[in-house]
Predict the structure.
Amino acid sequence: MKKFTRIICVMLALVMALACFSGCKSGDTQTGSDGSTGTSTIKIGGIGPTTGKAALYGQAVKNAAEIAVEEINAKDSSVKFELKFEDDENDPEKSTNAYNNLKDWGMQILCGTVTTQPCIAVSSEANNDKIFTLTPSASSTDVIGGQPDADGNVTIQRKDTIYQMCFTDPNQGTASAQYIKEQNLGTKIAVIYNNSDAYSTGIYQKFSAEAEKLGLDIVSVNTFTDDSDNDFKPQLNDAKSKGADLLFLPIYYTPASLILKQAKEISYAPKFFGVDGMDGILSLENFDTSLAEGVMLLTPFTADATDDLTKNFVTKYQEKYGGIPNQFAADMYDCIYAIYEACINQGVTSDMTAEEISQKLIAEFTSSDFTFSGLTGENMTWSDSGEVSKAPKGMVIKNGEYVGM
Amino acid sequence: MTFVSNLINGISLGSVYAIIALGYTMVYGIAKMLNFAHGDVIMVGAYASYCTMIYLNWHPLLSILFSIVVCTILGVVIEAFAYKPLRRAGSLAVLITAIGVSYLLQNAALLIWGSTPKIFTSVVNIKPLSLFGGKLTITAESIVTVAACVLIMIGLTLFTQKTKMGKAMRAVSEDKDAAELMGVNVNTTISTTFAIGSALAAVAGVLLCSAYPTLVPTTGSMPGIKAFTAAVFGGIGSIPGTMLGGILLGIIEIFSKSYISTSLSDAIVFAVLIIVLLVKPTGILGKKVTEKV
């Protein structure tokens, strides 16, 4: 009898394990035409947090990718795309699993991942597998590799197949410092950053180096970690007591929303200056947007721009998914189009292996003839370091909306 | 003035830890088990209150009552299904079950509410108190939290000292078998303890999210661990000790953030715990129990 129970137990355990695996497969999304004759359908994979703390980014990116792929497939063109987007919950381990799933599916080009920490892991894998990767928004230099750290050492070798659509963290840090100096936004600057996060730390290091060069006075620097992102009053009190008139927040929007609330509670009202991670703060459910009034951020995309390309994209996005697309969405839209143009120029077809495609795309992206104009900038170019070169725009939140400065 | 303001922040944060820690202490003191799912009951309480307030437009007080009811039922159900069958099993089995329940609750919340953060509306709708010409601001949440903490502690002490059920709890806590022989219904007593502990968790959840309003399925886990630390720190099983531990932990955390280093604050908090336990292994107000062999 005992033996029988044991066998039943083992069988039940097996059934449950199988159920787990089969569960992983559901919930994927696929868009695109199914390889009609004459055209070649290239398989593009996307990875990003469509659930989790950074879900706003992943969802926006996924939506934008779907719009771009749909538009391209409607065109009378030799290149068609098939898109499969996987969720990684902003977790490096889950992201690597998602990447492996996509590889099994036959992914030829990767657009992702969305957030930095997972992308550092996935980009190494993609580089080993020689899959061309263009990340919309993972901005750390560790994603592309080959960049010197704060001490000037190159600890991560250049990952040859990885390119970025967004600014690198150092560029964001440097550009923020320059922008604050040029626009004369503050004289005494305080910083609060997340020192358990590569994105936040990377921006802070370059910001402080550039600020020193420009003669900006950083009076208070404080940190927090993912485990202690509840109470920011000590950090804010420190900034307040040192008389900082501008608070630089190179962090994501979730802790930033708490900082804004607690600053108000201790009646501290400096100018708040964020980077692209601040984008999305207005879409938080039940967030009091008056708290974010006057918050400034550097970002390459404004949804209220009046050019045709932006208008078309924003209208389509609103119709299909509701809400105003953020810059992550715009970055992804540009990613798909940049890859599309490069594929056409190089005559990439779907029967090529991922490695062949990657060689062709790298040649195209680094060639001096290739410039790309999209939502997030005019005449963007890429160097073989993987970084993009384009101009940032300053934005400010007014009456609960992002407005160009 | 910064010092006073930091002190108030510390006491306020500590009071939240203390209310959560009281739940740990009650259950540990009576059932001799660590209910690691306690932090997640807090999260469920906060979500229950959030949903009734935002989606059904209930009055904050009504939503707190609802949340208390939900958590009490949840606590009793968890006890009945996950812990009661293991009453005679080793303590390790119960501990692992508690961790399992904790993950079950977190993932269920992830399925129901998703992991996009929700911004909790404070249940306290009073303007912050401004003293000394705006140099010192005390939020209404802080005052309410500290007051709630003191009230709960007094209430619990009276309950365990004066009522029949309270006496039964103390009896079970001292010697389960002897209490059973004296006619105390051990199962009912333990279930009641879980009900009270979970009701406290609901209050803690609402107060925690009123002060720090981002609500995600993992909201309860870190405060849960800190509160457990506070309970051990003050003397697990002792009600005043737990409250003292919670408040001290809050003050140490805020002070080390303000005066030593924001990066090292958690390390300092736990280092203090280690030192206290080395000097006084039962915690600050913990009773020393000699094991009879």
About this structure: The two ends of chain A are 77 Å apart (CA to CA). Residues 21-37 of chain A have pLDDT under 50 and may be disordered. Residues 195 and 222 of chain A are 9 Å apart (CA to CA).
